[in-house]
Amino acid sequence: MATARELIDLESAHHSGVYSKQPIVLVRGQGARLWDAAGREYIDCVGGGGVANVGHANPLVIQAVTEQVRRLSICPNGFYNDQRANLLDKLTAIAPPDLNRAFLCNSGTEAVEAALKFARLGTSRRKVVATMRGFHGRTMGALSTTWRREYREPFAPLVPGVVFVPYNREESMEQAVDSETAAVILEVVQGEGGVIPGDGAYLCRVQELCRQRGALFIVDEVQTGFGRTGEMFASLHHGLRPDLMCLAKSIAGGLPMGAVLIGPRVGNLPKRAHGSTFGGNPLACAAALATIEYIETEDLPRRAVDLGARLMAGLRGIESDVIRSVRGLGLMVGVELKVRSSPYLAALAECGVLALTAGPTVMRFLPPLVISREDIDTVVESVAGVLERDRG
Ligand code: PLP
């Protein structure tokens, strides 16, 4: 087995260069723990960027994938399939009311891409209202609705007709949504933008505006879905009934998959309006069925509520001049600092805790929902230690 240094050099020699990386080679995971090439153990608060809700090497997912890969891995969408049929049935059963159709794809950006296309088809309009600090992916359509300039500007011209308004501000949304608006797209909790929970009254008002003005309401639950925030979907906290709901990340227990759920206001979608070779393949569908079963039988949304409250209370109890605020919903938690967060994340990794940034100053914690109370307490102690060390 090559050393960590050799593996880092090898990957660095050939990767595209589009990612900044921590110098850690992860080779194994189990539940909420990860191990590096030297055998060092970490508590995982990255959770694959919100992918690993059911934990690494989840036994139900392993069993489902192993059985399915032996049986059938790919089934073109021109045919029917047992796993796909069962997954579509399950997804629409657990979704907010009226989302009774779904388009299956392979990632979050593809789910957003499909939702934007379906919104144009369903309304014959072009304008899209998106929110400042929102993140919806990096393909050209989704990127057009993603806020950060450094992601968008090098690729101009993007899809025209996108207007950005401040998040959580009703008046701006009222001014922006008009008779030309095909859709409003937003996250219930902004993830990449800094872990900013949407206000319930605001989100309901946006939905109402969409209904009144003939626009479709697209909720991007790519990061908030599948128990992360303490409900199966974050929309359910506020009784939202989106017309299109985008899903991905944790949907299939770690296998690549995305979905857009579709409500009646979208209308009929013509044949050949969209498509995907791998979308809805039986392997990902089997993994997704096992993932949802595990979330339900282990009541992971409940765990997210309890452990999220414990994590936030612990982090709020840390006395530090550097912390500006601690916020989140369920086990989606952000600590905004008054300074850049990356040095603290590197120090946390040295203590055996891996976490993410969300913008330059926010530390983001997205642990697998199977994380233990003891590990949550260790995370809090480690954050306190790292911030304290800096003080001294
Ligand atoms: N939407 C949201 C809310 C996300 O957080 C992300 C990724 O972080 C995406 C869309 C894009 O997903 P993917 O990276 O799978 O394309």
Q: What is the assigned CATH homologous superfamily of the largest domain?
A: Type I PLP-dependent aspartate aminotransferase-like (Major domain)
Broad structural category = alpha/beta
- List each distinct ligand once: pyridoxal-5'-phosphate
Secondary structure tally: strands: 17
CATH class descriptor name of the largest domain: Alpha Beta
Main beta sheet, described? 7 strands, mixed
Helix proportion range: 25-40%
- Placed side by side, the strands forming the largest sheet appear as 4-12-11-10-7-5-6
Q: List the helices and strands in order.
A: HEEEHHHEHEHHEHEEEHEEEHHEEHEEEH
Strand content: 15-25%
Gyration radius, in Å? 21 Å
CATH architecture of the largest domain: 3-Layer(aba) Sandwich
Descriptive terms for the model:
alpha/beta, Aspartate Aminotransferase, domain 1, 7-stranded mixed sheet, 13 helices, binds pyridoxal-5'-phosphate
